Amino acid sequence: MIIGNTTLTLTEEQGMLMDVAREFCRDKSPVSAVREQLDTELGYDAGVWKEMITLGWTGIALPEHCGGSGLGVSALVPVFEAMGRALLGTPLLTTSLAAQLVMRAAGAAQESVLADIAGGKIATLALTEDADWGREHFAVSLDKNGTLSGMKRFVPDAAVAELFVVPVQREGELVIALVGASQLPAGAIRPNTLIDETKRAANVDFTGVSVDENSVISGGQVVNAINDTRLIGALLVAAEATGSAGACLDTIVDYLKTRKQFGKLIGSYQALKHPTVDILIDTDSSRSFIYHAAAVVGDETLDRDGEIACRMAKAQATDTLLQAGDRAIQFHGGMGFTYECNAQLYLRRAQWSQQQFGDAQHHRTRLAKLLLD
Amino acid sequence: MSVSELELNEFRTEVSAWMHENNPKDPGFLLPQTFMEVGDERQLEFLREWQHKVWAAGYLGMAWPEEYGGRGVDPSFQTIADQEMRRHAVPISFNIIGLGWAGPLINDIGTAEEKQKYLKRILTAEDVWCQGFSEPENGSDLGNAQTRAVRDGDEYVINGQKIWTTMGNFAQYMILLARTNPDTPRKYDGLSFFLSPMNVAGVETRPIRKLTGEYGFTETFFTDARIPADCLMGEEGQGWKIAMQTLQYERGAEAGAAGGQMMVRVTVEDMINELQGVSRDEAAVLDDPLLRDELVRAVMEEKSQILGVRRGAIPGLSSDYPGSLLLSGKLRMSESTRRMRQLAIKLQGAEGALYVGDEEARQGGFWQRAYLNSFSSTIGGGTSQVQTNIVAEHVLGLPK
Fold this sequence. Notes:
The structure holds 2 protein chains of 2 kinds.
Chain A: H1 12-28, H2 31-36, H3 46-54, H4 76-85, H5 92-106, H6 111-118, E1 123-125, E2 141-142, E3 148-149, E4 151-156, E5 163-170, E6 173-180, E7 189-191, E8 201-205, E9 216-217, H7 221-258, E10 260-261, E11 264-265, H8 270-296, H9 304-331, H10 333-336, H11 343-354, H12 360-372
Chain B: H1 5-22, H2 41-56, H3 75-87, H4 96-109, H5 112-123, E1 129-132, E2 148-152, E3 155-166, E4 173-179, E5 191-197, E6 203-208, E7 217-228, E8 232-233, H6 239-248, H7 268-273, E9 279-280, E10 283-284, H8 289-312, H9 324-327, H10 329-346, H11 366-379, H12 384-394
Parallel strand pairs in B: 1-4
Antiparallel strand pairs in B: 2-3, 3-7, 4-5, 5-8, 6-7, 9-10
């Protein structure tokens, strides 16, 4: 009973997407291409993003009548795993989550918004306001005249987003405001400097922006939709982190097989060999959890199994990547301390991933309630 | 042979009812959780009787030929019977070396005489089997086994020493790996495989007292022990190949094993259920935030093992590091079990210091003993450290 649901499957669609996404990412995002984007404003290659839209990735989890493929979140998991493996940024993550929130909270009422996203419009989820991922009440508010006030922080890809999906408080009720980029006053976006240079985010001050009633999603579904979007966010970041952990492990193994010290390949020393196997085992575990979660999360409101699965996936995968990145630096010795060594890319990604939608400790605390009470 | 879903479902109902009905009551002494823990005659006789009863009911060796005591049905029936044994937490089928290794081996490559002589008595538990692979100087390095077997007319003369012989003092037969030729260029090519009787002059066993204070293994000494030459399985020099084949049967009924329950499964849930009523700082132990975190980690470890088995069966999800889940299976499982049992003692508070024999010990000291015994899996069959080397070298391709 405490172990609960242990479904784990790979559908034909997931398998096909996995093959396509891996090949695409290998081809378009070798580490040299990742490095070229580290100090650009966008943080990604606009041409690659266009190709991803053409491949239909922005609509994978959206309904067919909105121009999507109707494959659900489960089909996004192999795509994000492949992107994480290649450290490929782009706004796909936040766009997918913004779309999930709109779909879950409004459904048919916002079909045209979903259709635009499926067609390639960049949307972003403006959720977090402070250091607390677990906060359920928001300070950003919408008054009765339809005017927003307050700032969201860490808004992913805010500089390029065309649509902001913003959970806010309206007279004691949680609602979601849809804000177009053109509605923001000059200077509303202040970019963050992130530890992970493959990612982009900004603080966005929504104060003074007017939102008409058609652009406000309210009703009984909103609270569940926000909770579920956080969980799906945790799952997709876990999928990304799992891919990154695999790539980080490969980086470690390559070095251990080529670097010699004291006349021997350093991979023959058990002090390095054994923790590397631990990383393999943890990466294996992460993959099992993300594909299990993929199998139990659908379009409907997440049930207990779905919540447990997403939280376990996040708790496992980001801790795994943290350890992999940390050891990757150490095992590269002096080389690992340089900017030139790729190990730092994974370590920085690990720190970023940990802070998205709750770290491992946060999820284990929530899991304890679900499993032990 | 194809079996209908309906037939299997009906069978499951039947076997489940039987297990429910016949699951023996608490005998008043701790039963072994694995076949490596049969320490005294009382336990042996209890388990012998139980295995015989399961066989007589038709739930053991189901896929083995009828003429040798089986039922000759599809292995999927045995798999279901095994699942129901686990689910009803019945006692173990203790004669595992016979049921799981020697039996299927004889079934696959034995002569008609060997099948006639050995198979049925394995199922009925009349003959207990043990395994003579490890030696004091060659634990993890099995291929280097030095126990000698020298042909002398119609007999082989055995000299040497085996260790960690499970139930060596109770067994009638041993699957024995011994060296018939000490001069081969490859050490493996000098090994031969024997179905060797234990009740002959020159074979002596000495029980090993385990860290639990109990018994379960022996050292086995061969001093000019003479066994019939027809105890040799296959040809001289094929010992390593046959020993490796023997290890394949562990995969269960589908691979030819007679079935049965190898070990009593102990889950995190069992541990948590046992903690009701334990207090820490005047509150329920399950309310302590740090311990809750440890418990969630334990649940995740256990779930991860189950999910790993599922994922390993899906080619599209297990091709990144081929063999990884399979080769690390024993390492992950044994280490996670050890950690969980260690936690189970810690969670008991002051009572965690009690041991088997104290009437106030929780569940008779079950968890304390289980923790001490858990090292049999992190050491036996290749220590976790050797297993880690194997994974590093064979899966990740790291240098020796």
